[in-house]
Design a protein that fits this description.
The structure is a homotetramer. Chain A is α+β, with helices and mostly antiparallel strands and about 140 residues long. Chain A has three helices and six strands.
Chain lengths: ~140, ~140, ~140, ~140
């Protein structure tokens, strides 16, 4: 998949799947958190640290907090654009902010806080290289 | 499914499904929002207003805001208890609060704000009967 | 969760979740495979071999084949009963058959074939104790 | 999203989402049916009949049968290619066949049979225009 960099944000896109709709005829609200995760995946990839490689090397991120404010609804087949950026960075945690649009309409804003864990799920410092890249952002 | 009433909360239980785990070996974070929805379903049922009947009668609830703070992790096969209560009530919206435990360990706390919509997804007042039941709570 | 034994089958129940519906207003078809997995989980539990313990001990089951024939549709809030039984047993694989009903109406029949894997995902024999229990069935 | 036409097949791609993995560290088997549905969506789009428009016009497709034979496993971040084609066409139903590859490795083959329904979920003939396009295929 591809992404764009706009300012400090990495922008990617998903298309609403049939499986993601519910009986109200719109995408079920919990799926927005899956989409935000795709935004994070793409963000880390843009920094040069694909998350699947991070986990393989023993640096896991675990979601400590997740929030979404819904401003609209998205229908099957619509393209949802996810703009992701880092909003805070500490030695053991990082916060991401998200802005979602569906076919150009505002859809939602969201935020997540993740902490770094080792393979035994114990808190650890974010590896130095990754912390540096997160501090510099996608243009760094 | 069954539920208990404890104070102002309705308590129900789910068991972590294999499908809900992710490669960290724990339940994927977005599923907590699905579990909160099950808590809401059970809460409305306890009030005597099964949500499927509400929708059939033209009163939809749509999630405007959702938040979760994660305090632990849940594994496949573990029982997750969801305590749900109403935390705020307005003419067109209602807020729910949730406390989740996994096998007795604190798992997460969450909150959602829902607005009432008609079939065309236009905001409407919460039907009077339901508003009254929400105000009285599960012991009302 | 609870289950019943009827003949050679272990019967358990799920309730259709809002998250499982799609824009046709019925449970999305792929969820039936999740329900069958819950049937398997309950079946193995009835034999005294909870699957989460099997995996912890290094015996994984991986789905090699999955089939479902749909005979009806299930709506949000409806109770779906899943009757699960073993239909074939070999040294390295086991086949399960499923009959699903929604509120007493026939919903679907299904089948899955699973092979035993070790932690490195290499085929292995089904552990002797488990093979014996699978051969005897839930009344064994 | 984009697709290619190869022979009688329409080929599209998904990337394995974190949410789609399970505790075995690979994509959970039921998700393959979601991917096949994305293949169908793309196939119908290639014919000029986006499925979301079909439903809006009162022609629903409902899955009557679904099968998958698994030949490998797919990991988070891997690209899965789905080749979709029509394998049988009747007045009221259509069968699709699928071949899935993950990063070039064979992943699975699958099949689904869908029947046409009207808005009240009663069987109906596949609309003539769509039947014609399905008969001609993506090069038609």
């Amino acid at each position: 998949m591809s992404f764009d960099v706009r300012g400090d944000a990495v922008v990617t896109e998903v298309e609403v799947r049939y499986a993601e709709t519910d009986q109200q005829g719109v995408a079920y609200h919990a799926n927005y958190f899956v989409w935000m995760e795709i935004g994070r995946t793409r963000y880390l990839e843009a920094l040069g640290f694909p998350y699947h490689r991070m986990e393989a090397e023993g640096a896991l991120f675990s979601v400590m907090e997740a929030r979404c404010r819904y401003a609209g609804a998205a229908r099957y087949g619509e393209r949802v654009e996810i703009a992701t950026q880092v909003t805070a960075l500490r030695s053991r945690s990082v916060a991401f902010g998200y802005a979602l649009e569906a076919e150009g309409r505002p859809l939602a804003t969201g935020a997540t806080v993740l902490i770094a864990l080792d393979r035994e799920r114990r808190p650890r410092r974010i590896p130095a290289e990754i912390a540096r890249a997160l501090a510099l952002g996608p243009r760094g």
